[in-house]
């Protein structure tokens, strides 16, 4: 009997050790560890080499993740940019090392802030033609999204192509 008891005990320990792993894999629920909300872009005039990408990225894990890259069949290259004020001059710069999204938090890619820069566009971005993008993360699996094409919003629009890189 003693032997059986210790065997049962060993099983219990093994289960206790496995339980947290199973829980961690489930974490984030059905949405997965990374949540993307409101992915959108703007139409581009013919000949414009660059487009933008905006969205909200939520990190449902317990560890920081990083958006380190993106790909789309629509563009030759995608960069992660940040718009900053340099005195009175607005300019864009690469986000070095990727865009960190702290555990449990949401980071917005939006006008005048972080954005995806779709470079070497192969054809203009037009309304009604969503742009598929694969987001690459460090600390999480890649995520496929579709950028909804949304017209410029009047007075606040910026001519991205004239901005200094
Ligand atoms: Cu940019």
UniProtKB/TrEMBL annotation:
It comes from the Bacteria. Keywords: Signal. InterPro entries: LpqE-like, Lxx211020-like, PCuAC_sf. Residues 1-24 form the signal peptide. Pfam families: PCuAC (PF04314). This is Copper(I)-binding protein. It comes from Marinobacter persicus.
């Amino acid at each position: 009997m003693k032997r059986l008891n210790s065997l049962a005990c060993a099983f219990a320990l093994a289960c206790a050790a496995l339980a947290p792993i199973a829980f961690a894999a489930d974490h984030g629920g059905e949405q997965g560890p990374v949540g993307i909300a409101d992915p959108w872009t703007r139409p581009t005039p013919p000949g414009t080499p660059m487009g933008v990408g905006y969205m909200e990225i939520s990190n449902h894990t317990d560890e920081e993740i990083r958006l380190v890259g993106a790909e789309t069949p629509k563009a030759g290259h995608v960069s992660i940019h940040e718009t900053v004020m340099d005195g009175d001059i607005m300019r864009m710069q690469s986000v070095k090392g990727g865009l960190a999204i702290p555990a449990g938090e949401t980071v917005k890619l939006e006008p005048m802030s972080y954005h995806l820069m779709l470079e070497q566009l192969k054809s203009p971005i037009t309304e009604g033609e969503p742009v598929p993008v694969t987001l690459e993360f460090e600390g999480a699996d890649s995520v496929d999204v579709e950028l909804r094409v949304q017209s410029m919003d009047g007075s606040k629009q910026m001519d991205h192509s004239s901005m200094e890189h």
